[in-house]
Write a structure and sequence with these properties.
This protein is an alpha/beta fold. Helix content is about 40%, strand content about 15%. The chain has 16 helices and 14 strands. The strands form two sheets. It has an eight-stranded mixed β-sheet, sandwiched between helices. It has a six-stranded parallel β-sheet with strand order 11-10-9-12-13-14. Helix 13 links the parallel strand 9 and strand 10. Bound molecules: ligand SAJ.
Length: about 425
């Protein structure tokens, strides 16, 4: 029997997931509280950038397999894929998860399956979702089934990873997990591993925390590079030739809605026990200030007082249009704090999302005393430095994404984050 699916939350994960089911012959209804997002989907216009999404959305809507509205409808399966951000005090904000669950309560019937996809602190299904679902009056675990099936895809390669990545599915009981596995087998080619809901919640948060801690290690080493008199990128490259070593890379900070957020869930739950996680978060959060200070010291060394900084890259990482928790925003704030003037450019951030933004690379660089590259977009990697005119020919690469020789040959003084051999 073909199931019907209602996806609540049509953002970076909900929309690709909805589209994927629809492309595989499942009738999907997408729900979002934002009427503009719903309208754009109905009109087959994208409110997010993702490789392959437009074609798949067109197909889903044209074939009549994807509809959207601001309120849920009855379905066999409900998938909740809403944000789970942190509050200013770094505690988890689970209000969207709670509200989304509450919104489906009037539509949930006997035999339905409810799946949470959002990344959440361990025990969220138990403590936030179940108390809402109890209000259906149905028996949880026998009348309705509940599972956590965290997404694990990387923005920019979502469709490839949705299909090929393994999935971890945690049910509140065995039947819930099995039904969820059966559903995702519609398009998942990776192995689907079954466990309980709390373990699945922890696994997802652990994965991102592993990355955060590893990046913090790289950032700590980058800060030490000058003392050690090395190029840390070269050192990491060599260390990673060891078959059991995989050191991540330094940068101007860690952004995005996942890695910069999820470890705080464990800090909140673990308290004093979560020391390494807490310290890593703080190390990564210290990188924007470190980057700004380094920018200023380069200017000082060149005897440039004050100064205009051209920031290249507002997105939190290369080749995406996502600015959530972007370290670039913090770096700019820190630069301004130091009395520097900033003009920023990002070919992936289309509208005016930042007050320093210009849509013209030329305008950003022409009067710059220093160009600071914060995001490793392909457009920056392949920039021809001969076409860049600037007040002073100084460039600071924080992502090791530029061709040093080409920039130096074009007359630029080249600086790299984590490299003592800047010349
Ligand atoms: N970064 C570094 N150094 C590195 C790698 C990344 O500074 O060596 C920075 C990036 O520039 C960026 C941030 O970290 O600012 C995060 O980028 P990312 O590419 O590592 O991760 P996300 O946030 O795009 O996606 C992650 C992925 N998790 C893992 O790889 C363990 C993805 O699989 C998850 O689905 C996603 O989080 C999520 O939604 O949780």
């Amino acid at each position: 029997m073909t199931k019907t699916v209602c996806v609540v939350g049509l953002g970076y994960i909900g929309l690709p997931t909805a589209v994927m089911f629809a492309n595989h012959g499942v009738k999907v209804h997408g729900v979002d509280v934002n009427p503009a997002a719903v309208r754009s989907i109905q009109e087959k216009k994208l409110h997010i950038e993702e490789t392959g999404l437009q074609e798949r959305l067109n197909q889903a809507v044209d074939e009549g397999f994807l509809t959207a509205s601001t309120t849920p409808v009855e379905a066999d399966v409900f998938i909740v894929a809403v944000p789970s951000p942190i509050n200013p005090d770094k505690t988890a904000n689970l209000e969207y998860v709670r509200q989304a669950t509450a919104s489906i309560v009037p539509f949930v019937k006997k035999g339905n399956l409810v799946i949470l996809e959002s990344t959440v602190p361990p025990k969220t299904v138990e403590r936030i979702m179940i108390p809402e679902l109890v209000k259906t009056g149905l028996d949880i675990g026998t009348d309705i089934y509940v599972a956590h099936s965290p997404e694990r895809v990387i923005p920019g390669r979502i469709f490839e990873e949705l299909v090929n990545n393994d999935r971890i599915v945690g049910g509140i009981n065995k039947k819930s997990a099995e039904l969820t596995k059966e559903l995702y087998e519609t398009f998942v080619k990776g192995t689907i591993h079954l466990t309980d809901a709390t373990t699945a919640e922890l696994v997802k948060v652990m994965e991102n925390t592993y990355r955060d801690v590893n990046i913090a290690f790289a950032n700590e080493l980058a800060k030490m590079a000058e003392v050690l008199d090395v190029n840390i990128w070269e050192a990491i490259k060599f260390a990673n030739f060891h078959p059991r070593v995989n050191v991540h890379f330094p940068g101007p900070g860690v952004g995005g809605h996942c890695i910069a957020v999820d470890p705080w869930f464990l800090v909140e739950l673990g308290g004093e026990k979560a020391q390494i996680i807490n310290m890593s978060r703080n190390t990564n959060d210290s990188m924007p200030a470190f980057t700004a200070q380094k920018t200023q010291s380069i200017l000082n060394r060149n005897k440039i007082a004050g100064g205009k900084v051209a920031v290249l890259g507002l997105a939190f990482k290369g080749n995406v249009d996502d600015m959530r928790e972007s370290p670039s925003v913090d770096v700019i704030e820190q630069l301004q704090h130091l009395g520097l003037e900033v003009i920023s450019f990002d070919p992936h951030i289309k509208e005016n999302k930042h007050e320093t933004q210009t849509q013209s690379l030329e305008e950003a660089t022409k009067e710059a005393n220093i160009i600071v590259v914060l995001t490793d977009h392909n457009e920056f990697k392949t920039l021809n430095p001969l076409t860049i005119s600037a007040e002073n020919k100084i460039v600071f690469d924080t992502k090791n994404c530029l061709n040093r020789e080409a920039w130096q040959e074009a007359g630029f003084q080249f600086h790299l984050l984590g490299d003592a051999k800047n010349k």
